[in-house]
Design goal:
elongated; 5 helices; 172 residues
């Protein structure tokens, strides 16, 4: 004789309880609306390895109303700097930065790619003055924001999105 199990219907509250909720942070930074799949790159840009001892939450490829999918990073105990925000803007130009203090949003900033990028990436042209003269920082005009494309102010060489990401991740 075979035994059959009767299927039971789940009450609506039980289905809701299956959602994973990430704990609020007391103080730190939440980076939301990161381009899907780029959370780990943002962590690398920020120099966060997980060994620092801070509580870090990463959600990747989650559903979003504003974007089809997005990534989210929460870092307890750390507020990111303006320079770090400019670096993030180059790979996640639609991200939002929330500075959290006492469990509340203290400051909310929607990232935007600045018109000029100075000293963050280097020119691809080996003959460019920024690669050959000491003390001259790279200086780029933003040609396109989606995807980010830059033009060197000195030699006019174009630097594309893939090269920007490689440089920011230290793979050049």
């Amino acid at each position: 004789m075979t035994q059959t199990k009767k299927k039971s219907r789940q009450p609506k509250t039980e289905a809701k309880s299956k959602e994973l909720l990430v704990q609020k942070i007391q103080a730190g930074t939440v980076i939301d609306h990161i381009t899907a799949g780029y959370a780990l790159a943002v962590m690398q840009i920020l120099g966060i390895t997980g060994r620092e001892g801070d509580i870090i939450s990463i959600a990747m490829n989650v559903q979003s109303k504003r974007m089809e999918k997005k990534d989210i990073i929460k870092v307890e105990g750390r507020e990111i700097t303006t320079e770090e925000i400019n670096r993030i803007a180059l790979i996640a130009p639609n991200a939002t930065i929330n500075i959290i203090r006492d469990y509340k949003i203290h400051e909310k900033t929607r990232i935007s790619v600045p018109d000029k990028i100075i000293g963050i990436v280097r020119c691809q042209n080996p003959s460019c003055i920024t690669n050959n003269e000491r003390g001259i920082r790279s200086n780029f005009q933003v040609v396109d924001r989606t995807p980010v494309t830059l033009r060197c102010d000195y030699c006019k060489r174009i630097t594309g999105h893939d090269n920007i990401i490689e440089q920011l991740l230290g793979q050049y």
